[in-house]
Amino acid sequence: MEVTSPQFKQKSRKALADEQLQRAMGKAKSGFIGKRKKAVEALPEFEALRSSARAIKDHTLAHLDLYLEAYERQVVASGGRVHWAETAEDARRAVLDICRSVGARTVTKGKSMITEEIALNDFLEKEGVRPVETDLGEYIIQLRGEHPSHIIGPALHLNKEQVEEDFRRVHTELPQARDLSQPESLLGEARQILRPQYFQADVGITGANFLIAETGTSIIVTNEGNGDLTQTLPRVHVVVASIEKVVPTLEDASQILRVLARSATGQDMSVYTTFSTGPRRPGDPDGPEEYHVVLLDNGRSSMLGTEFHEMLRCIRCGACMNHCPVYHAVGGHAYGWVYPGPMGAVLTPSLVGVERSGHLPNASTFCGRCESVCPMQIPLPRMMRHWREREFERGLNPATQRFGLGLWAFFARRPKLYRLATSLTIPALSGLGGRRGWFRSLPLAGGWTRHRDLPAPEARTFMQQWRDRDTRKQDGGAA
């Protein structure tokens, strides 16, 4: 997937003017937040579970090499094979080699953000292997030639009228007169089209929410059941997962699962939680003949021990973007890569470089809602600040921004000069604001006033008001 994060501002302007997108985002905003709140309030121990989940991941990351080696041993013991992939290219090649080894021409896929990260679909198509997305949201956006706009709701940016139009355009073998006006009828049609694909595919590819070092098990959570069919019906099951998905034991995964669905969709648990351990054994009624795991690094090991280490705790629930006012306004595609919202504003610079994605950590109000709802207690605002610092240190900011920050820093390091300057400029700006108390335009503030009024400051500085408050206290007056 091409990185278009440098066009974040242009994409955001387009998104804000897109009426269809704004209507879809309005529905998403109202749905996720209320459901999560209700689910959390119904579980008194939720905060304790968050702390426990954080401790599990912190422990695992501190001993990541040991748990990854233990996981590989258990996969091999169960009859599977692990392919280590340092880069996206390594992972793509590993999947292609597996497909070619069984002569696969079609593969079915369960929803996987890692395969989006490595642009697996485009790669397989160029190599003559047809990938078929089986998650309903992923299937819809595959028909449209788009990428996911949300990590758990890939087609969140669309309305059902758009989906109906796409189905009528693509499913030309079905009668045009059929009723597709309701979500249930759209779901039924997608099922009718996708069902045969599971039996035609030689390879099924899924992601993994967790990898269990204790047993060599991969776990996926879904609400549609497509993940189960993708990994049990084809001859070969390929799991593509990143290295930080490993946890020590089944009990550890069970604890984290209790906060995952509640944070993501407001469910106690997802409809399907599927455990896979190796290929089909003698006597098993179904399952794949081969079981492969492609373990991807792609820059994650370089995050260990840095300011961004805690980002590796992320379990991809999407709660941060569900509560983010910036994401609500512009949607996921504006972020220009696989991971949108606050988690993307931290992870994308880590994986593709701040030079190509510096707009993202700046696209935040720092309201703190993302950190407050994160089930893994990841300090997202703090890490976005770290990326802003690195961007400034490398001289990647616009010259006007650097000049402004430099000017402010000059005064901030000289308290007496700072107080003098503010005591002169703030009353003057307050007077210019007049009775209205705001400015329609102001030199050097065009980026703000082009879209909204700028409030005029108070007539007196904060320090002046604080001195007056202390004086009144000393005189026995009301504070």
UniProtKB/TrEMBL annotation:
The keyword rRNA-binding does not apply. Residues 305-335 form the 4Fe-4S ferredoxin-type domain. NCBIfam families: LutB/LldF family L-lactate oxidation iron-sulfur protein. This is Iron-sulfur cluster binding protein. InterPro entries: 4Fe4S_Fe-S-bd (IPR017896), 4Fe4S_Fe_S_CS (IPR017900), FTHF_cligase-like_sf (IPR024185), LUD_dom (IPR003741), LutB/LldF (IPR004452), LutB_C (IPR024569), NagB/RpiA_transferase-like (IPR037171). SUPFAM superfamilies: alpha-helical ferredoxin (SSF46548), NagB/RpiA/CoA transferase-like (SSF100950). GO terms for biological process: lactate metabolic process. Keywords: 4Fe-4S, Iron, Iron-sulfur, Metal-binding. Gene3D superfamilies: 3.30.70.20, NagB/RpiA/CoA transferase-like. It comes from Nitratireductor pacificus pht-3B. GO terms for molecular function: 4 iron, 4 sulfur cluster binding; metal ion binding. The lineage of its organism: Bacteria, Pseudomonadati, Pseudomonadota, Alphaproteobacteria, Hyphomicrobiales. It holds the Pfam family LutB_C. PANTHER family: LACTATE UTILIZATION PROTEIN B.
